[in-house]
Amino acid sequence: MSSERYRAAAVAGGAVGVLGAVLPWVAAAGFELDVHSVYALVACAAVVTVAVGEWSRRSQFAVGVLAAVTTGLALEAITDFASDGPPPGAHVATSSPGVGAYLALAGGALALAGVALARYTA
């Protein structure tokens, strides 16, 4: 029964990651599309799709890899912003990469935690 809770955590993490990846597109009309957001969106959607299906060892591994990719892309977006400043398509000067990157990071971390707990707890 506890494995189902961890599965639900992985699905919730993927859903939060999808929200975080889509948020820059719907929040600011002047934002250019970022390749990292597209990859994070695809990876998070795949996390939700795989986690909703059969919850086997293979699917847990796939969800873990996809969640790690999402987390890495979100971290890269946050560190790129910290070093380079706002993206060139932003019409207003911002002082942070936006809540979308942080939501994608939190979603990926939640999905990773769900998989890790499902795999390594008795």
Notes on the structure:
The model has no long low-confidence stretch (mean pLDDT 80). It is elongated and about 40 Å long. The longest helix is centred in the middle third of the chain and has 28 residues. Helix 2 runs antiparallel to helix 3 and helix 2 packs parallel to helix 4. It has 122 residues and is mainly α. The chain contains 4 helices and no strands. This is SPW repeat-containing protein. It comes from Halorubellus litoreus. Keywords: Membrane, Transmembrane, Transmembrane helix.
What key attributes describe this structure?
122 residues, mainly alpha, 4 helices, elongated
Give the end-to-end Cα distance, rounded to a whole number of Å.
11 Å
Portion of residues in beta strands equals under 5%
Order of helices and strands: HHHH
Task: Detail the poorly predicted runs.
Answer: none
| Mean pLDDT, all residues | 80
Structural class: mainly alpha
Query: Main β-sheet, in a few words?
Result: none
Helix content: over 70%
Quickly count the helices: 4
Shape: elongated
Total beta-strand segments:
0
Organism: Halorubellus litoreus
Keywords: Membrane, Transmembrane, Transmembrane helix
Protein name: SPW repeat-containing protein
Structure summarized in a few sentences:
This is SPW repeat-containing protein. It contains four helices and no strands. The longest helix has 28 residues, at 57-84.
